[in-house]
Amino acid sequence: VYSQWAMRDIEIDGIIYNCNEQAMMVEKASLFLDDYAKKQIMASKNPAVQSQLGLNS
User: Fold this and answer.
1) Please, which residues have CB within 8 angstroms of residue 40's CB and are 6 or more apart in sequence?
2) Contacts of 53 by beta carbon, 8 Å cutoff, 6+ apart
3) What digits encode the pLDDT tens for the residues 3-38?
4) Total domain count, the chain
5) In this structure, are residues 2 and 22 in contact, taking their beta carbons and an 8 Å threshold?
6) Residue 7 lies in a domain
């Protein structure tokens, strides 16, 4: 079963993310020019935390 939270490294534009949730939340933070959230999301290894950080962007 496919999940945004499945722990599997993916590479997009030379950046390696630990799951699709991380990639999506980083892109959302970038869209809103929220560099602080972007750094926190990239530092997190937990998709639930990444999602929560992205909601606050």
Assistant:
1) 53
2) 25, 29, 37, 40, 41, 44
3) 999 999 999 999 999 999 999 999 999 999 999 999
4) 1
5) no
6) no
Query: Would residue 21 count as lying in a domain?
Result: yes
**Residue 33 tokens, joined:** 């020019």
Report the amino acid identity of residue 10.
Answer: I
CA distance 43 to 3: 20
Q: Which ranges of 1-57 would DSSP assign to H, the alpha helix?
A: 20-31, 35-43, 47-55
Instruction: Locate 16 and state its tokens.
Output: 């390696």
The Cα–Cα gap between 5 and 51 comes to 9
Rg (CA), the chain: 10
